[in-house]
Amino acid sequence: MSEATPETYLIEYRAAEHLLNARDPRGAVKLLDSVISAYPEHTAARLLRARAYFLGAQLRSAEAEFQVVLEREPDNAYAHFALARTLQRADRHDEATRHFRLAAALDPRPDFLAAAKFGERS
């Protein structure tokens, strides 16, 4: 078996994106595991794996992965929003509200603003 190259990992990353879009989060995680093993600093791969964990209802793994992304990119509005959805799904609503509001403050997209529920008590 030949040794993996950077191109191999790029192909696996792109294939994982397609698997996630095709609603195969487990397949995506398998591919991303090798990418992240080779490139642990690759934040986009970690974000994609977090999304795959979320879609596969692996909420603890999703939360941990979103947290890694946010440690590296604290201004990543999407990661805050996705972490909030993860926490919401785990019935941790106060924590979720905090991240919804951070997401909306960083990027005032309509869906982020709606989820943030500014003006409502938490």
TrEMBL record:
> One Pfam match, by short name?
TPR_19
The superkingdom listed in its UniProt entry is Bacteria
- Organism, scientific name: Streptomyces pactum
User: What Gene3D superfamilies does this protein map onto?
Assistant: Tetratricopeptide repeat domain (1.25.40.10)
Q: Which UniProt keywords apply?
A: TPR repeat
Q: Which residues cross the membrane?
A: none
The entry's protein name is: Tetratricopeptide repeat protein
| Keyword match Protein transport | no
Residue stretches of each TPR repeat:
77-110
InterPro entries reported in the protein's UniProt record: TPR-like_helical_dom_sf, TPR_rpt
